[in-house]
């Protein structure tokens, strides 16, 4: 039994023993052990609290206060200690988990587009945004649609510019030399309603060198309706070239000749390499030829089922390879048909 | 074609600088592809006079020259010198167009102070076997460049077929340039030939179709002079070689007016002159010394002894004009453009004449050319004799074209008045009679390309300048259906790119033996292929894709994943049918070597990609069954289906096919029909999220080793029906402790009901139903 000042002294001794124990606890288990020893039901503090009733009445109040304060203090110290211990454990774990972040990542093979596909999609999307709808036609096409309907009769000098592949065992059929027959198909489908059409696809010519491939791609646009004029062609081409070559593009129309358009115009853009100063690529002219265009020839309109006295229209065609070669600086067209991954992985 | 700035200046008067002329011509539709400067870089050469000649050796001559300041001595090998001639002399220090700077040189002990120059050395002509002899009035001591007007600008113009009809002449180009400068180019008027001279041979044209007009005159030589320098320079600048005065004259008139002319040596032809179709197999030696076997398509000029010219293309060696020729019979004619064009293409001889005839000529041009010939002949020492023979008449000018001014306004989108349109046309030499809102247009006779109102509209556009066009967007049109397969293809390519594939583009023309190797022989071929490897239309995209794969391997490129979409060509009865396919291939590891290890792709890589892609593309109910494609490994290939619809195949390339294609590693390849995919595709409709928890059960089944998993899976799906939210196969195992001939399949089944929370008892009931069925059907038991 504790007595008088002795009791208070013992509380002090109890405190310093408990503090030593808590400070010595290095891990969760040791701290838990200390908790049981000092704050447990059978611990000295509980024991002392129970003994308050045996103390003289004059001491009871102070003793009670001191013991309760001690209990609060120990509990709070244990919580603090607990936080320190988990902090230290986490720190140790993180240090153990540290690795060399400069090691390379797990490699992933990325897929990617073909330059021709990039250009095709850009061309189609640009025209789509201007209200043209997409249409298609066969690659094995009748001579009638590939030539005659487009105002290119047999022996027309323009046939020389279209060195044609003929289809075996199918007289009157060729591998289309341009995407223009799709114009006739679209007109026949929609006449006499107005039409705004775009197509893209493969075409074939008997040509094989650095700038000509026997198989290549064209994109073609067509607009027919009442009151369509050449200013609409120019406006469309301007928007179209801006979408492909950027906001600042300059365009120039030059009179030209195509059997299926009259008037016809070749379209140049300001050279994208030298900005119009003149360089090797634009042969010093400051302009690069991009596409052919014109007002649909009355013969072609009639073939498409329109009355040229009422309806007018414009058409234009672009070589996809040419745009791709210009845009990406590729100088041999054959590279576009080899699927060489060393090229494709750059896209 | 080529034309010099000097020639255009002579026709039109002083012109803007050549760069500006080039721009104007280009904007007018005559694309100047190159602006050449002939004689550029010559400096220091002087006009000198030959005083005295003395031989040094058999070939070399010592020439004493007189210039304005001093005398000089030169040694030359040129054969064409005589005392008194004016010549270009390049003293030491002179720079030549080819970059050389002249110095003094020693020849057999004689010091040559510089040299005398040929046209070739000056840079204005091709003639390099003699010194360029200058006219006698050339001022002594004058700078040669200044005297000759060097450097001389020459335009090289690319002609479209329509401009080739009226601009293969100096006059034609000048007319176009003049329109933009407000000048007009004078033309020569046609004149009748007069009566045939006495004793002239008869002229028979077999068919007016092949030769609507044939005019012939006789010419006689009056003096023996050289072609004057100005005429030779014109020929040079146009890329032609001077030959002899009479030939140079005819070529000059052709270059000026566009009408090819042909001189025959009169003493080498005899009897009536006939214009007829050639007989197949007939032979003719043309002027270039080539013996040609003719076809019935060709037109010939013939005399008693057979053909003397391949009409419109080239003359014959037999009737060739030579140095002794005193009289010529000169032909100016029109020949069928179609026939000349065919002959030209058939024999591959694109002569200056043929290129003009092939595009067509104005009906009165032959008579205009003869009139011009008459004017110019004395300059080369010849004379056109009076009279001539002619077959056919000059066709009258076509009636005027009536054009509504409103049509032109609409077509060009330009608010031009009738008068503005008329004056634009007049600037190009058109005669115009305008009324209130329409006008009648008569083009110049050379403009055979202008036939209807739309042609006139183009002329109005060129008359006002194409740069004046407004810029406007067309009004909208109603929406139209679009081919859905195009959008599926684009979507599919995006999906395969996301899966790591690179997009390939191959030729659709392939070698038929390649298709045979793949067991899909060609069904359609090209009749006139460039080569056998581009002669058949592909029946499978795998042809190009596997070639691309082999090419990449050969270049040491690995980790191949390629996808291609495009058309394949089949035959259905007589017609070629085009189908849209998509093919994809893997070879080697999926990613570059790394510390994480690397494994070559196998069948299940390809199949995993296929399953992911088809799921992303909303193709439902995808499953496979063993396939029988001859190009694929017989035990490692499958047909792909959506429900009952066949979509395509996939598998490992057959080792024998791989070897034939030069593919040394295992390659995986699949091909799908985009049209079949489109038919199978379902609309995207979001399902409600599950409201009740799922129960997950793993079961390991022991079944016969050769029982296909797909069969088990179908059964599981059928028995569990709507309760089955997901199923996965997470282990396949054979060998002890599984009895031999059996395998264990470990499945994870996710059970879920949209209506309520499933209980343990529900799961037990469902699983025991499943196990009972699997036991009944396949003798399956739990492991």
What is the secondary structure topology, with strand pairs?
The complex is a heterodimer of chains A (347) and B (783).
Chain A: H1 4-24, H2 28-39, H3 44-50, H4 57-97, H5 115-129, E1 133-134, E2 140-142, H6 143-146, H7 158-161, E3 173-175, H8 181-190, E4 195-204, E5 215-226, H9 230-245, E6 251-258, E7 261-270, E8 287-296, H10 298-303, E9 311-319, H11 320-328, H12 341-344
Parallel strand pairs in A: 1-4
Antiparallel strand pairs in A: 2-3, 4-5, 5-9, 6-7, 7-8, 8-9
Helix pairs in contact in A: 1-2, 1-4, 2-4, 5-9, 5-11
Chain B: E1 2-4, H1 5-12, H2 18-27, E2 31-38, E3 46-55, E4 61-66, E5 71-76, E6 86-90, E7 104-107, E8 110-113, E9 115-116, H3 119-122, H4 144-148, E10 152-158, H5 170-181, E11 203-205, E12 213-221, H6 229-237, H7 245-257, E13 261-265, E14 273-277, E15 283-285, E16 291-293, E17 299-303, E18 306-310, E19 314-315, E20 327-334, H8 337-347, H9 352-357, H10 365-376, E21 382-384, E22 389-391, E23 401-404, H11 405-412, H12 418-427, E24 431-434, E25 438-442, H13 453-464, H14 484-498, E26 502-503, E27 509-510, H15 512-517, E28 536-537, H16 542-554, E29 560-572, E30 575-587, H17 603-616, E31 622-626, E32 632-642, E33 645-653, H18 655-660, E34 667-673, H19 674-680, E35 695-704, H20 709-720, E36 724-733, E37 742-751, H21 760-778, E38 781-782
Parallel strand pairs in B: 11-14, 26-29
Antiparallel strand pairs in B: 1-10, 2-10, 3-4, 3-6, 4-5, 6-9, 7-8, 12-20, 12-21, 12-22, 13-20, 14-17, 15-16, 17-18, 18-19, 23-25, 24-25, 27-28, 29-30, 30-34, 31-32, 32-33, 33-34, 35-37, 35-38, 36-37
Helix pairs in contact in B: 1-5, 6-7, 7-10, 11-13, 12-13, 14-19, 20-21
Question: Describe it for me?
Answer:
The complex is a heterodimer of chains A (347) and B (783). In chain A, helix 1 (4-24) packs antiparallel against helix 2 (28-39). Chain A has helices spanning 4-24, 28-39, 44-50, 57-97, 115-129, 143-146, 158-161, 181-190, 230-245, 298-303, 320-328, 341-344; strands at 133-134, 140-142, 173-175, 195-204, 215-226, 251-258, 261-270, 287-296, 311-319. Chain A starts with a helix and ends with a helix. The mean pLDDT of chain A is 90. Chain A has 347 residues and is α+β, with helices and mostly antiparallel strands. Chain A has two domains: 4-97; 115-344, BirA Bifunctional Protein, domain 2 (2-Layer Sandwich), CATH 3.30.930. Chain A is rod-shaped and about 135 Å long. Chain B is built from 21 helices and 38 strands. Classes of the chains: A alpha+beta (347), B alpha+beta (783). At the A-B interface, helix 5, strand 1, helix 7, strand 4 and strand 5 of A face strand 2, helix 8, helix 11, helix 13 and helix 14 of B.
């Amino acid at each position: 039994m504790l007595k008088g000042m002795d009791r208070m002294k013992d509380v002090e001794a109890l405190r310093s023993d408990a503090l030593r124990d808590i400070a010595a606890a290095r891990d969760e288990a040791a701290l838990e052990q200390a908790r049981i020893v000092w704050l447990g039901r059978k611990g000295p503090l509980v024991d002392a609290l129970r003994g308050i009733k045996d103390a003289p009445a004059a001491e009871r109040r102070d003793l009670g206060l001191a013991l309760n304060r001690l209990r609060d203090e120990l509990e709070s110290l244990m919580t603090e200690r607990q936080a320190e211990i988990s902090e230290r454990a986490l720190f140790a774990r993180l240090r153990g988990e540290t690795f060399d972040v400069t090691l390379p990542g797990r490699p992933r093979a990325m897929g990617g587009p073909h330059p021709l596909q990039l250009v095709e999609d850009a061309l189609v999307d640009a025209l789509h945004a201007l209200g043209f709808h997409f249409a298609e036609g066969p690659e094995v096409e009748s001579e009638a649609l590939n030539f005659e309907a487009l105002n290119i009769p047999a022996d027309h000098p323009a046939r020389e510019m279209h060195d044609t592949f003929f289809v075996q065992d199918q007289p009157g059929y060729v591998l289309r030399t341009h995407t223009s027959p799709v114009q006739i198909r679209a007109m026949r489908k929609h006449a006499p309603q107005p039409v705004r059409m775009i197509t893209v696809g493969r075409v074939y010519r008997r040509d094989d060198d650095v700038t000509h491939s026997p198989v290549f791609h064209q994109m073609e646009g067509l607009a027919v309706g009442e009151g369509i004029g050449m200013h609409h062609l120019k406006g469309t081409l301007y928007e179209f070239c801006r979408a492909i070559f950027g906001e600042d593009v300059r365009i120039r129309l030059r009179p030209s000749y195509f059997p299926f358009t009259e008037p016809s115009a070749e379209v140049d853009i300001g050279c994208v390499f030298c900005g119009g100063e003149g360089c090797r690529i634009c042969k010093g002219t400051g302009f690069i030829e991009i596409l052919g265009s014109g007002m649909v020839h009355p013969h072609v309109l009639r073939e498409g089922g329109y009355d040229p006295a009422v309806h007018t229209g414009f058409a234009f065609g672009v070589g996809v390879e040419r745009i791709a070669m210009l845009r990406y600086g590729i100088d041999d067209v054959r590279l576009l048909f080899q699927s060489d991954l060393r090229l494709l992985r750059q896209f | 074609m080529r034309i010099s700035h000097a020639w255009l200046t002579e026709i039109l008067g002083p012109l803007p600088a050549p760069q500006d002329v080039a721009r104007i011509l280009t904007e007018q539709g005559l694309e100047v592809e190159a602006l050449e400067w002939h004689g550029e870089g010559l400096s220091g050469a002087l006009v000198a006079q030959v005083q005295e000649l003395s031989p040094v050796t058999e070939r070399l001559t010592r020439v004493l020259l007189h210039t304005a300041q001093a005398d000089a001595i030169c040694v030359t090998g040129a054969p064409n010198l005589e005392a008194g001639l004016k010549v270009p002399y390049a003293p030491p220090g002179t720079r030549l167009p080819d970059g050389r700077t002249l110095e003094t040189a020693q020849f057999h002990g004689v010091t040559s102070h510089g040299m005398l120059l040929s046209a070739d050395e000056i840079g204005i002509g091709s003639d390099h076997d003699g010194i360029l002899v200058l006219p006698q009035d050339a001022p002594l001591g004058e700078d040669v460049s200044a005297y000759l007007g060097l450097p001389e600008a020459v335009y090289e113009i690319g002609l479209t077929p329509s401009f080739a009809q009226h601009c293969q002449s100096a006059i034609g180009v000048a007319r176009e340039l003049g329109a933009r400068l407000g000048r007009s180019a004078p033309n020569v008027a046609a004149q009748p030939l007069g009566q045939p001279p006495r004793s002239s041979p008869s002229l028979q044209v077999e068919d007016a179709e092949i030769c609507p007009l044939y005019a012939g005159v006789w010419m006689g030589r009056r003096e023996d002079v050289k072609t004057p320098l100005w005429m030779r320079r014109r020929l040079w600048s146009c890329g032609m070689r001077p030959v002899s005065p009479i030939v140079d004259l005819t070529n000059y008139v052709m270059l000026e007016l566009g009408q090819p002319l042909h001189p025959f040596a009169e003493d080498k032809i005899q009897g009536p002159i006939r214009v007829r179709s050639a007989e197949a197999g007939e032979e003719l030696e043309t002027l270039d010394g080539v013996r040609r076997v003719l076809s019935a398509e060709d037109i010939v000029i013939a005399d008693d002894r057979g053909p003397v010219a391949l009409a419109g293309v080239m003359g014959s060696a037999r009737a060739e004009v030579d140095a002794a020729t005193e009289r010529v019979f000169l032909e100016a004619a029109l020949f069928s453009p179609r026939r000349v064009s065919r002959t030209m293409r058939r024999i591959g001889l694109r002569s200056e004449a043929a290129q003009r005839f092939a595009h067509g000529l104005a009906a009165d041009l032959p008579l205009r050319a003869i009139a011009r010939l008459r004017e110019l002949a004395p300059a080369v020492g010849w004379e056109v004799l009076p009279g001539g023979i002619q077959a056919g008449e000059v066709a009258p000018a076509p009636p005027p074209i009536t054009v509504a001014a409103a049509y032109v306004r609409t077509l060009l989108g330009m608010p031009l008045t009738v008068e503005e349109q008329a004056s634009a046309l007049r600037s190009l030499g058109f005669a115009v009679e305008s009324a209130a809102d329409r006008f009648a247009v008569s083009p110049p006779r050379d403009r055979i390309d202008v036939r209807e109102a739309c042609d006139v509209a183009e002329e109005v556009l060129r008359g006002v300048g194409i740069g004046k066009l407004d810029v406007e967007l067309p009004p909208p049109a109603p929406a139209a259906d679009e081919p859905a397969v195009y959008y599926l293809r684009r979507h599919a390519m995006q999906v395969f790119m996301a899966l790591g594939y690179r997009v390939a583009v191959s030729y659709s023309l392939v070698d038929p033996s390649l298709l045979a190797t793949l067991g899909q022989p060609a069904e359609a071929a090209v009749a006139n292929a460039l080569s056998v490897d581009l002669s058949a239309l592909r029946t499978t995209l795998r042809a190009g894709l596997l070639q691309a794969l082999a090419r990449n391997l050969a270049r040491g490129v690995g980790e191949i994943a390629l996808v291609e979409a495009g058309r394949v060509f089949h035959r259905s009865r007589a017609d070629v049918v085009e189908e849209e396919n998509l093919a994809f291939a893997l070879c080697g590891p999926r990613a570059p070597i790394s510390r994480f290890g690397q494994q070559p792709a196998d069948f299940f890589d390809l199949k995993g990609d296929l399953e992911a892609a088809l799921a992303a593309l909303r193709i439902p109910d995808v499953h496979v069954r063993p396939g029988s494609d001859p190009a694929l490994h017989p035990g490692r290939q499958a047909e792909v289906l959506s429900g009952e619809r066949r979509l395509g195949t996939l598998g490992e390339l057959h080792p024998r096919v791989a070897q034939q294609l030069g593919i040394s590693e295992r390659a995986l390849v699949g091909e799908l029909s985009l049209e079949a995919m489109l038919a199978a595709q379902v609309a995207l409709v979001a399902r409600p999220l599950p409201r009740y928890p799922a129960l997950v059960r793993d079961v390991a089944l022991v079944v016969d080793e050769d029982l296909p998993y797909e069969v088990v899976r179908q059964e599981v799906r059928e028995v569990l029906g709507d309760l089955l939210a997901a199923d996965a196969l997470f282990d396949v195992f054979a060998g002890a402790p599984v009895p031999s001939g059996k395998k264990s399949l470990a499945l994870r089944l996710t059970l879920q009901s949209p209506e309520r929370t499933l209980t343990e008892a529900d799961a037990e009931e469902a699983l025991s139903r499943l196990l009972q069925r699997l036991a009944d059907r396949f003798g399956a038991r739990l492991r």
